[in-house]
Amino acid sequence: MSIAVRVPASTSNLGAGFDCVGLALDLWLEARLIEGEGPATYAGTLASLSPDRDLIARTIRAAGLSGRWQLEVRSEIPVGKGLGSSGAAVVAGLALVDLARGAELNRDGLLERATAVEGHPDNVGPAIYGGLFLASQGGGRLTLSPAVGIALAVPDVTIDTHAARARLPREVAREVAIAQASRAAALILGLTQGRSDLIAYGMEDQLAVPRRKEMIPGFDAAVAAGRAAGAYGVTISGAGSALLGIGPPQLAGRVALAMAEALTRAGNPAAGLTPGVATTGLTVTQQ
Fold it and tell me: Is the pTM of this model over 0.85?
């Protein structure tokens, strides 16, 4: 007997949507529980991971399921790049525990529990539901315009989320708070209506990016290169180190390449990626 789930990557913040807006990406983590004893195994971007550091394995142990099930994990999601690898792992672990106990998946309940563990609803929300997700009271999945395409530049180096979060200000001026609220509202309208002007305005974050961009050598050059290649806007994906460009789908490849080349020229080797949007989130593939 085995139980298996798939969970997508996610890009969060998307500019001024700090800690509130996330988007599921077509890069997947697959986790399987096989009845019986055996060591956990990892492949893909997690090939070198130790079970002691794995959020899925920790969840399995905490639930008292160790020794009864063998864990197999394969992931396409870059780790430490701001693409929701930890959020996907938390969702996968909690879902596997529920299924192993014979419970039905309750996505709303899973969102609450995963947020409590991982701390970032803008990552676990898209991972659970797929698509564009608004992490707010009464929020949920939104309809992303087909005029929105995704481009990523993913550096070789990683960024620790805790170190990135430590750069955030404890207090902000009133005018900054107002500007952030305005841009966040514009971002949602732009993404759902396909308005390039609103997306560009909404991707200009006032809180995190000005303080985190120094952690990404070549950031300003990559932003300029991505916009010159056709992006509506460029920002940091999650806490970084990846950069996110949003623009017309047909230009995604050009934008990704331009951003990656700009980072590489600045001594920050990077590769371009153009994942599609994952329209489905957490999926049970075997039960």
Answer: yes
